[in-house]
Write a structure and sequence with these properties.
- The complex is a heterodimer of chains A (465) and B (148).
- Chain A contains 15 helices and 15 strands.
- Chain A has 465 residues and is α/β, with parallel strands linked by helices.
- Chain A folds into 4 domains: 113 residues, 3-Layer(aba) Sandwich (Rossmann fold), CATH 3.40.50; 73 residues; 120 residues, Histidine kinase-like ATPase, C-terminal domain (Heat Shock Protein 90), CATH 3.30.565; 80 residues, Winged helix-like DNA-binding domain superfamily/Winged helix DNA-binding domain (Arc Repressor Mutant, subunit A, Orthogonal Bundle).
- In chain A, a hairpin with a 3-residue loop joins strand 11 and strand 12.
- In chain A, helix 10 runs antiparallel to helix 12, helix 13 crosses helix 14 and helix 13 crosses helix 15.
- Chain A is flat, with a radius of gyration of 37 Å.
- The two termini of chain A are 38 Å apart.
- With 148 residues, chain B is α/β, with parallel strands linked by helices.
- Chain B has a single domain, classed as Rossmann fold (3-Layer(aba) Sandwich), CATH 3.40.50.
- Chain B has a 5-stranded parallel sheet, with helices on both faces.
- The longest helix of chain B has 18 residues.
- The chains are: A alpha/beta (465), B alpha/beta (148).
- At the A-B interface, helix 6 of A face helix 1 of B.
Chain lengths: 465, 148
């Protein structure tokens, strides 16, 4: 900054009707090691000209100007954001000086106390303050703009979904008529139409039915946002149990499929009916896209990631998805297979994506064609589970900290009952090492991996507090 | 054996397509029924109170099948009015609508609807459901006796 100022001279406008004072300022600036261009204005017209011409970096303004007072000029300069203003005050005008600060002046200098150093340091500080002020204002402006854009987006998004909901709702009725009366016609004309005519009518009814299905799907999709419910604790294990026994029972039986949950899944903080729908779609897909002759085996696993999210994986042994399709299968009405091979309208995964994103999570798939796919998603963990997780980290972090502090620890020094689980976990994963001093009882040291974990745990603990 | 009297149904439905579908569904039923059709809440009021073009004096129906979304007086307003009338309130009213919004369902029962049925999308389902409504109210249920 210092260097920059040496290269481009700072343009200062001094406004004072006293020529002697202007000369004093001129003299002080000339002897400074900073590069200045000084403009002097003693009358209203001169100030006006200088301000209109622009290019001023700083204004020194006498409070007591004839015709138009210094405060009035200050108002104008602040209003138009022309340059920072330092007020020059005469004897006894302290009160006005303080007022000028409220009105937007950066600083003031009592004339009788003006020295070269005071002038230069005030200029320097004022320029810096001004720069910071402008940056802050710009930042605030951008934030406000962003906030406004966000609100607009949210509003138009909501309007769009309300529209989609109402439109699809109203579209359904006429489609129902086309399909119903088409079918009535088909019945009453049975035997009276030739083969070609029968086919035409069948196409018409089939089209109407598919259209109805799509409108239905659109309704389901738009309901994710229009019929959203507040989040609550969701027990995924129970959800999957229900799905197995009710919604997916027929599919499980017909395919001879299995849905495995090897380890209990962590509870979620989410919209219960939407999570139900999400799991139903993912498990349903797993039961649907199986390889002929290979009964579907679906495995659901879950773990806590990034401290406050749960990652759920739904793995199947089905037909899999070619890599090039993996990215866009979550789009609306995207289908990879013909309707004859696998029925469905291509809304299921789009609904899944929308549900997950509504919860602030992500969804994705990893797949091996001919071997199987793993769909995964993340959603927030429950608040009480988060607390348990925090405690778990705290305990582990405490163990590691203590060991690292003491440079090794005797098992007997630990409150063994409460930490055993975590201690075993740490041992099993090579975070701890049994010391090599036989006969001294069991003594433990942190491995390199353990030290790394300690650092990470401490960072995470900081983050979530 | 009780003397079988014809069961009368008043259908309040603005959509001519649905009017016809319901008429078709009730045909060929074993129950001897008489179906009257009106196209709006206002006309239904005229029918019940023998006013306007319904001043000829048709007897009160045993059952009303009521659509919710109609131009002018909607189904809910119609329901609210007849349930306030001592003479009308014993008539069973079954909502038959395309809406499955929770609000509509709740509002309808709060207004003392006897049942709430969503119009099935599939033609066969539609016909079956309409027949089942009729069978339920006229065979299984005992309706209040007719005033002579």
């Amino acid at each position: 900054m210092e260097e920059e100022r040496k290269k481009t001279p700072v343009k200062i406008l001094v406004c004072d009707d006293d020529p002697a004072f202007r000369k004093l300022v001129r003299t002080y600036l000339r002897s400074a090691d900073m590069d200045f261009v000084l403009k002097e204005a003693g009358q209203k017209g001169e100030i006006r000209d200088a301000l209109d011409k622009g290019g001023i970096d700083l204004v020194l303004m006498d409070i007591l100007m004839p015709e138009k007072s210094g405060i009035e000029w200050l108002d104008e300069i602040v209003e138009k954001r022309i340059a920072p203003v330092v007020m020059l005050t005469g004897f006894g005008s302290e009160e006005i000086a303080v007022q000028s600060i409220h009105e937007g002046a950066i600083d003031y200098i009592p004339k009788e106390r003006l020295t070269r150093d005071r002038l230069l340091s005030t200029i320097k500080i004022t320029l810096e303050t001004w720069k910071r002020k402008l940056a802050e204002e710009e930042k605030r402006r951008l934030m406000e703009e962003l906030e406004e854009t966000n609100q607009k987006l949210e509003r138009s998004n909501k309007e769009l979904w309300d529209f989609a909901y109402i439109a699809s709702h109203d579209l359904r009725e006429p489609m129902r008529k086309i399909s119903a009366f088409g079918q009535l016609l088909q019945k009453s004309l049975k035997g009276k139409l030739d083969e070609d005519e029968q086919e035409n009518l069948a196409f018409m009814i089939d089209g109407a039915n598919r259209m109805q299905q799509m409108i239905n799907d659109l309704l389901i999709y738009s309901r994710v946002s229009t019929k959203a419910k507040p989040p609550a604790r969701v027990d995924l294990n129970a959800v999957i149990g229900d799905l197995k026994n009710v919604e997916l029972a027929v599919q499980v039986e017909e395919t001879g499929g299995v849905i495995n949950v090897p380890e209990p899944l962590p509870p979620l903080h989410a919209d219960p009916s939407q999570i139900h729908q999400l799991l139903q779609n993912l498990l349903g897909n797993g039961l649907k896209y199986y390889r002929k002759g290979v009964p579907p085996v679906i495995t659901v696993r879950g773990r806590v990631v990034r401290g406050n999210m749960v990652r759920i994986e739904v793995q199947d042994n089905g037909i899999g998805i070619e890599e090039q399709y993996c990215a866009n299968i979550f789009g609306m009405f995207k289908r990879l297979h013909s309707r004859e091979d696998y029925e469905g309208s291509g809304i299921g995964l789009a609904v899944c994506k929308k549900i997950v994103e509504r919860h602030g999570g992500k969804i994705g798939v990893e797949s091996n064609p001919g071997v199987g796919s793993t769909f995964w998603f993340t959603v927030p963990i429950t608040i009480d589970e988060l607390q348990i997780q925090r405690n778990r980290w705290d305990v582990m972090s405490d163990i590691l900290e203590e060991i690292s502090w003491e440079g090794g620890v005797q098992k007997t020094n630990l409150d063994w009952k409460s930490v055993k689980r975590y201690f075993d976990f740490l041992m099993d994963n090579d975070f701890l090492d049994a010391g090599d001093e036989p006969g001294k009882g069991e003594s433990y040291k942190l491995t390199e991996k353990g030290q790394d974990l300690l650092l990470k745990l401490q960072t995470v603990a900081e983050m979530i507090r | 054996m009780e003397k079988i009297r014809p069961a009368t149904i008043l259908l309040v439905e603005d959509d001519p397509g649905d009017q016809k579908l319901i008429k078709v569904s009730l045909k060929n039923q074993k129950i001897a029924n008489e179906l009257y059709i009106v196209g709006s809440g206002e006309e239904a009021m005229e029918f019940l109170y023998h006013r306007g073009k319904h001043s000829v004096g048709t007897p009160l129906p045993d059952l009303i099948l009521l659509d919710l979304k109609m131009p002018g007086m909607g189904g809910k307003e119609f329901l609210r009015r007849i349930k306030q009338d001592e003479k009308m309130k014993k008539i069973q009213v079954v909502i038959l609508t395309s809406s499955d919004s929770e609000k509509d369902i709740l509002d309808s029962y709060n207004l003392q609807a006897s049942g709430y049925v969503k119009k099935p999308v599939e033609l066969e389902d539609f016909k079956r459901v309409v027949k089942e409504i009729e069978a339920y109210w006229f065979i299984i249920c005992k309706l209040p006796p007719k005033e002579e």
